[in-house]
Design brief:
Elements (H helix, E strand, L loop, with lengths): L20 H7 L7 E6 L2 E10 L4 E6 L2 E6 L3 E3 L2 H6 L41
Antiparallel strand pairs: 1-2, 1-5, 2-3, 3-4
Length: about 120
Amino acid sequence: MFGRRTRTRLSFLNPLDQPAKASILSRRDLDIGTSVKADVRGKWVAGVVREKVGLVMYKVEIDGRISIKHIDQLIATSPKSEIIGEEGDDEWDELPVIATNPVNHSKTLRKSKRETKPIERYQAG
């Protein structure tokens, strides 16, 4: 019924029917002090995990400020590449940079040729 197997008292004896939810959550766990890249308004910024707030929420220190981030907004990085700062070690150097709003500054802006009317002020009287 409803696409599920019915549970009985005997179903507790079969260990193969146990859900694997615990293994999925433990796979995406970050330790305190882990170096991460955090998504801040579309840019990935280096930070450090300071505290675990919930199952998937973390307090992360980014540029001296503490912010709360979801696990989907964090990616664990190796602390070695951040300390050394070598260009080849960081996996983020290989990602393409995509401009969201390309601006061409070489063109001059067109000015409207519409005649503007003078402002009519309200005269209370």
